[in-house]
Amino acid sequence: MDESDDAYLARRAGARHTPIGANLSARPLLHRLDPLDHVVRGSRLVKPISVALSRSSRQRGGMQMESPDISRKVTVAVIPGDGIGTEVMEPTLGILEAVGERHGLEFAWQHHDWSCEYYTRTGAMMPEDGLEQLAAADQILLGAVGFPGVPDHVSLWGLLIPIRRAFRQYINLRPVRLMPGIDSPLVLREGTEIDFVVVRENNEGEYSEVGGRMYRGTPDEFAVQESVFTRRGVERAARFALDLAASRRGSLASATKSNGIVHTMPFWDEVVHDCARDYPGVEVRDYHIDALAALFVLDPGRFDVVVASNLFGDILTDLGAAIIGSIGIAPSANLNPEGEHPSMFEPVHGSAPDIAGQGIANPLGQIWAASLMLDHLGHPQAAAEVVSAIEASLTSGVRTRDLGGTASTTEVADAVLRHVTSEGAAA
Ligand SMILES: NC(=O)c1ccc[n+]([C@@H]2O[C@H](COP(=O)([O-])OP(=O)(O)OC[C@H]3O[C@@H](n4cnc5c(N)ncnc54)[C@H](O)[C@@H]3O)[C@@H](O)[C@H]2O)c1
């Protein structure tokens, strides 16, 4: 750890949430401090996501220990979706099975063909009882949805957004880390490390159903879309991000636009700073979203944790994915931190119709997302092995076209699988 146990305990005492991103060596302290951190709810155990988030936390953590009370049987709903979603999902399941076998983890896959193709056949993106079916699973793995011929708002609001909302997946966690062997498109100053996490509010904000259109097709036509920011919604995102920052380098950047958006954004700022009073060890700084976007390009090394509203977080993380080399590598976790509902793990990218069916999609975003799931399930060592295997395969030069290589989806996934297996054999 970077700080003494006592300092960590003192800082942690003020935190109300389980700090996700705590490194492994902090875990025994969490056991002592807060028994609720280790409540097992089936395989929805809420555990700190650590290894998949931070290179430095893995370096500090050394050998990762798994708590003996973690459930070993995991039912995962699998929704490959559309386009390259179907291509990157299958090899990911093989990697999970390989790493699971060594860690005594048994996966039961519940396959769902819900997609735009399903919509074309049935008129809906998922069956009427789709959410009930998913509720029976411990976790959800999603590829991507969306395909030409079905409007994007239909595919998004017919599947992805209902899942995020019904299961109160109010945190969208997106690590932005430059992996070894990958060149950022940015010219980075000597010694700059890109290693930060974006916490995106995932249930409300700009993505609301409140609004409508009138006078369609006439010169008087207009559309109104209301943003919805609740104290509860902003506070839980802010506290999650503050906890995460407290367990990392102690710095939180809050994305705002309070100069131009005069009601919701000053409210966002106020709530974030109200919460921050409970975290004296975390330095909080507000950035207007336009300036923040520029700094992602000009000075990405300054960031540790970034908290943002639904829309701002969405846009920032595509930019984040671009600066770490490709959107094909970036992972995303839609978390229900309490573990009362399944969480959902997916790559940041979409269905990429322009390359679908060619076997050249980068599978690493999906595989890294699977590693976030292992970590969330309380299997940090298994998660670490998957991340190390991704790093090893990248370092060995096996890369898809988006990263400047020539390898196919299968060749990259096979390389990760080989490294997962050899790492396990070496352990
Ligand atoms: N979570 C989701 O399911 C999700 C997210 C974003 C977009 N979408 C949907 O996906 C469809 C396409 O959207 P888009 O083009 O804006 O975004 P996209 O992420 O699908 O593609 C953007 C660009 O990145 C490339 N790309 C994306 N993933 C890649 C990978 N794994 N390997 C190599 N290259 C990759 C694509 O070829 C494309 O050039 C739309 O229907 C959109 O609504 C879905």
Automatic annotation (TrEMBL):
* InterPro entries assigned: ICDH/IPMDH (IPR050501), IsoCit/isopropylmalate_DH_CS (IPR019818), IsoPropMal-DH-like_dom (IPR024084), TTC_DH (IPR011829)
This chain's protein is named D-malate dehydrogenase (decarboxylating)
Q: What organism does this protein naturally occur in?
A: Ornithinimicrobium cerasi
Q: Which reaction does it catalyse?
A: (R)-malate + NAD(+) = pyruvate + CO2 + NADH
Q: Which Pfam families match?
A: Iso_dh
Taxonomic lineage: Bacteria, Bacillati, Actinomycetota, Actinomycetes, Micrococcales
User: Does the keyword field hold rRNA processing?
Assistant: no
Tell me its family.
Belongs to the isocitrate and isopropylmalate dehydrogenases family.
For this UniProt entry, the molecular function terms from Gene Ontology, in alphabetical order, are: D-malate dehydrogenase (decarboxylating) (NAD+) activity; magnesium ion binding; NAD binding
Which cofactors does the annotated protein need, by name? Mg(2+); Mn(2+)
- Residue limits of the Isopropylmalate dehydrogenase-like domain? 75-416
Keyword line: Manganese, Metal-binding, NAD, Oxidoreductase
Q: Its Enzyme Commission number?
A: 1.1.1.83
Q: Which Gene3D superfamilies match?
A: Isopropylmalate Dehydrogenase
> Looking at its record, which EC class is this enzyme?
oxidoreductase
